[in-house]
Amino acid sequence: MAEETEESFVVAGAVIHCHCGSHMRQLDAPYCHGTYLLGKPALNVADSVPGDNIPSFGVCLSEENPHEVVKTSQEDMMFPFECGVELPLKGRRCIPELYGKWEDGKEDVLVEGEPALTTESILTCGHGGVIYFINDGQEVD
């Protein structure tokens, strides 16, 4: 049985993952909205821009991804718990195709006029992936 976690607000540095991707990454905030939580920039549902907020998740395993086939190596890994991934991993190059905002933001808490991002928020990629939170970033340094 999966352990239930409490919904929490997301800050820059939160760890995210796409269920079609091979790697976990950190959500980035190239600029601050002026709201901080524990000294870190709070994010909103509009922080969903590929390249600015959302990085590549390494190798994409989606059949819907049209990009070239690539291999990944240990040097591509960002987090120690990814060491269990069998390498090299072969799949399509992950280039997130995102057109909207994060879903399920906290509507009654606004960050620069947009609903606050929470660990319950998800983002859908045009290649069929669903991006979700591993943690809220509040404890990540």
What does this structure look like?
- By secondary structure, the protein is mainly beta.
- The chain is 0% helix and 26% strand.
- It is elongated, with a radius of gyration of 15 Å.
Give descriptors for this structure.
141 residues; mainly beta; four-stranded antiparallel β-sheet; three-stranded antiparallel β-sheet; 0% helix; elongated
Quick recap:
By secondary structure, this protein is mainly β.
Protein topology:
Elements: E1 15-18, E2 25-26, E3 36-37, E4 40-41, E5 59-60, E6 69-72, E7 89-93, E8 106-111, E9 114-116, E10 123-124, E11 130-133
Order of H and E elements: EEEEEEEEEEE
SS-based class? mainly beta
- Helix residue percentage: under 10%
Report the count of strand segments: 11
Average pLDDT works out at 87
State the helix count. 0
Question: What is the overall silhouette?
Answer: elongated
Classify the beta-strand content into a percent band.
25-35%
Radius of gyration: 15 Å
Q: Spans with pLDDT under 50 lasting ≥5 residues?
A: none
